[in-house]
Amino acid sequence: MIQIVLRFLRAAERVNTTGVAMGIENNRELARRLEEAAALLEQQHADEFRARAYRRAADSVASHPQDLRELASREGADALLQIPGVGKGIAAALSEMLATGRWTQLERLRGSLDPEALFATLPGLGPELARKIHETLHIDRLEALEAAAYDGTLAAVPGIGARRLATIRAGLATRLGRLRRAAPPQDTARPGVALLLEIDHDYRSAAAAGTLPTIAPRRFNRQGEAWLAVQHITRGGWHFTALYSNTARAHELGHTRDWVVIYYYDHDHIERQCTVVTEYSGDLAGCRVVRGRESECRQFYADAPAARAAFAGTATATRSP
Same domain, yes or no, for 67 and 161? Predict the structure, then answer.
């Protein structure tokens, strides 16, 4: 009887040790990715605050006594907010990594992001429809796709009927699982169009001058050339990351030196994005406009006529290398 009890205790100890070791490795991998993001931000001349925030969170994650995967599965993603240095944005990043094994923002900093391939892994989405969603909605994260699946914007994409929408929702629910945020933050606060146009202007000017760090995007870049300029700017209480669009549509139309994607973050590091383009028709022809906010841009240019010249678009678009 004593031997049976001893064997049971030894087995339990092995299971517990394995569980602890696995938890340590999970946490270390999460911390390693946060550290990599901090290093890339530093290399790309981002504001020190962002890099420090990721590094501080990495230290807390690496030393956390519990396996974060088990913690989030047991108590929900909000439990991650109790970790020192982890705010809403970093908690969302950890949730994304735990649920999907990927971190979109890190892949973007590396230049390896391929949102169309990511979307095409979902049931009901083939390559062509995934491309159409990316081109139409200008999103590159599964959580952003999930939000679009419920707020009506995804249903407006040609080819997304009621049955396919239900299939996509089910696929997202399975993929994201319990680690999904219960209530994704609403896009209630966002930079004004004047600030976005200013960031767009500064980025295009610096990119043209060749003063920005560059990354080698994986898509449409067989030679592996580092041609895509990236700029991180902190202004007006927001953190911005700007880079030219590297979508298939931008390449087809020769607008890879015209369309600018701007990602913006608040103090919680919650990421949102917009695209700034040159308008080629109508009363805003020749002006830079923020897609989806054309009426605000129209009012901005009406109130500040000189801005039409200051924020004028490119006369012609050229193809990337």
Answer: no
Helices 142-151, 127-137: axis angle to 10 degrees equals 80
Domain of 58: which CATH number? 1.10.150.110
Full-model pTM: 0.74
The whole-angstrom separation of Cα 40 and Cα 35 is 9
* pLDDT tens column, 159-178: 999 999 999 999 888 877 64
Task: Output the pLDDT for position 53.
Answer: 92
The secondary structure of 256-298 as a DSSP string is TTT-EEEEEE-TT--EEEEEEEE--SGGGTTBEEETT-HHHHH
Q: For the chain, what is the domain count?
A: 3
Segment (H or E) for 204: helix 193-209
What is the separation, in whole angstroms, between the first and last Cα of the chain? 75
| Residue 232 and residue 160 in one domain | no
List CB contacts of 153: < 8 A, sequence separation 6 or more: 137
Quick check: helix, strand or coil at residue 232? strand
What pLDDT, on the 0 to 100 scale, is given for residue 177?
67
pLDDT of residue 269: 66
Structure tokens at 158: 């040609």
Buried b / exposed e across 87-100, counting CB within 10 Å, b at 16+?
Answer: bbbbbbbbbbbbbb
Contact 39, 45 (CB under 8 A): no
- In whole angstroms, give the CA distance from residue 282 to residue 259: 18
Question: Cα–Cα distance between 72 and 164 in angstroms, integer?
Answer: 30
Which pLDDT score, from 0 to 100, does residue 78 have? 86
In this predicted model, what pLDDT tens digit does every residue of 78-107 receive, in sequence order?
A: 899 999 999 888 998 998 898 888 898 999
DSSP per residue, 55-78: HHHHHHHHT-SS-HHHHHHHH-GG
